[in-house]
Amino acid sequence: MGPFDFSTGTTNPETFPTEELAAAAARTVRKHAVELNTYPGSLGHEGLRRLMAQREFDREGVRLDPERIALTNGSMQAVTLVAEALCEGRDDVVVMEEYCYSGTISAYQGLGIELVGVPVDGRGMRTDALQSALEGLRDEGRSPRFIYVLATYQNPTGSVMPRERRLELLRIARAHRCIVVEDNCYADVHYEGEKVPALYALDDGPRQVYLCSLSKIFAPGVRLGYLTASSAELFERIVERRHDAGPNTLAAAISAEYLGDRLWEHVETANRALKAKRDAMLLALESELGNTCSWSHPPGGLFIWVRLPDGSDVERIEAAAAEREVSFSRGTLFHVHGGGGPYIRLAFGFSRIPDIHEGIARLARSIEETGREPA
Amino acid sequence: MGPFDFSTGTTNPETFPTEELAAAAARTVRKHAVELNTYPGSLGHEGLRRLMAQREFDREGVRLDPERIALTNGSMQAVTLVAEALCEGRDDVVVMEEYCYSGTISAYQGLGIELVGVPVDGRGMRTDALQSALEGLRDEGRSPRFIYVLATYQNPTGSVMPRERRLELLRIARAHRCIVVEDNCYADVHYEGEKVPALYALDDGPRQVYLCSLSKIFAPGVRLGYLTASSAELFERIVERRHDAGPNTLAAAISAEYLGDRLWEHVETANRALKAKRDAMLLALESELGNTCSWSHPPGGLFIWVRLPDGSDVERIEAAAAEREVSFSRGTLFHVHGGGGPYIRLAFGFSRIPDIHEGIARLARSIEETGREPA
Fold it and tell me: Is position A283 within any domain?
């Protein structure tokens, strides 16, 4: 990745705890030699499952049984596994935010699932539109396999769904007897403002599936996510679909060893630095593009969602930016049907602060230049 | 796992290179901090892909492009991914050895695939029976999505398919334009005798898929396997089905760092100790069960395949053995339709040599006792 790569939601190498993690890695191999020589089972290294149960308790006040947590190869394996387990191979419909994580969209499309997009606003998925979507499906005699929702620091828009709307979403889902799959991978990448409870913490019904990750608070290269479900039956159904002989013991044990007694200290250090990067990017956008574009001010997560001037040719801007070694993600990647307005998504976690300023200046020149020239 | 657990194909904790691996783990974190903060792509850590290309070249004399190797979460992810990519969701048939790896059988059954078992003998899958199976399917207007075959140190029977039969198998597959998926995960767990080339090394056609692993020569807890295919089109088709955002960078980079300059030295050390365990188990079987049972003498791999006396009640023996803290795998687990004769599979990699003697003595008492008592 180059210095002006704003395309991917990677973590911040500048706060990566290299020395402490190196020491933890060495300790882990010594401690867990026998476990490394055996298969992990379908749930994975117990130490990390216990730690993630603690993480959820600390954040949500909900006690999860570590035996009801399955570690996965990043949360993307969980995203995929849930759909593989809950879909039936024909007439499969999933309802999700109209703008949503591109990885989920392409995985689900790859699995042949029909995606129904629900419009979003600055507070996430619009529940009036969700209600209409579910009613529309019901009128056709169909029901979605599940609702997939990123309620906190939504990717790509950065919004947080307020508590009231969460309760409304859950009420609608219950009324339609619909499973809710909550992807909470950004939960702890928090900069300011109130922390809203996760959906699963607001519902004691049997149709909640919850996905989370270490990719955003620790490192995507450890490839560790996890899933839980609010009923044993639902959990078993998902875990039984797993056919990979279990998650990575080495990575899980090293992560548990490092994070074990400093999870929140680690998260706070990472977030402080990420907030500075977010602020730097917001400032650079203001000074470089304040007259022509608008953008989100996300209170958490790793992305800023930018609306370019109407009529912008995003592909041409992308090419012009690439010539200046700047990259971003086109907004259409995050639209369930590849449509939508002239948006781009900027990730701020990876680049150094001076490079953020320089990169946004180069992006601004690319936008201006493309706007001036005839198409 | 207890001291007399002969049920799972784990590696030998006694030759696990704890100190060297601990040092390699620490070096890896320092070397690859930036890579750990980014996503791995769908192929995974380049260093391990290069090393696995070298491994294949050293063993098979075939030069693989590291860009045509995808790392997977153990070879089981590869086993599953291949079927997910090549099956169409209806009328899916896979042809495989009648006795085969239980993980593959249950994964493929879980995916709704119809399995056609081809009888095996001491030289692996019988090619006359393969020919009949393919002709039988053709007469029904059907063709298998692929032939899955474990030609070397076959699990569970321990057989090695001779070169001539390999060529015959490939000839038959070509004639039926059928993809061959070769699972070579035991390839380097070699004790004696001639090394026979892998199927993919004997065929330059476009329909070969090859799976291999670090689970058997290094440690299953690193969850690293890999796949390649003989045409770019076939390779892309399989890799595109992957929706997990890529394999584990941390585990792959640590494994490459440790194995990098001592792969074969490591393998030789591991095999020497495993051969001693195999020999100990063969000796114990001879002295404890020589009058009543027969078994394989595998020149590689991690298992001995034992035929119990006719009329044995394997479930009762299993229960009696469990009371003596001895476990094994029932032969029916490895039969494509859960049938077959009175076989059990004994894994010898995990237990210490004195425990192998003691465990086989306990197993013998369980068999005798169960045979004496009325059912």
Answer: yes
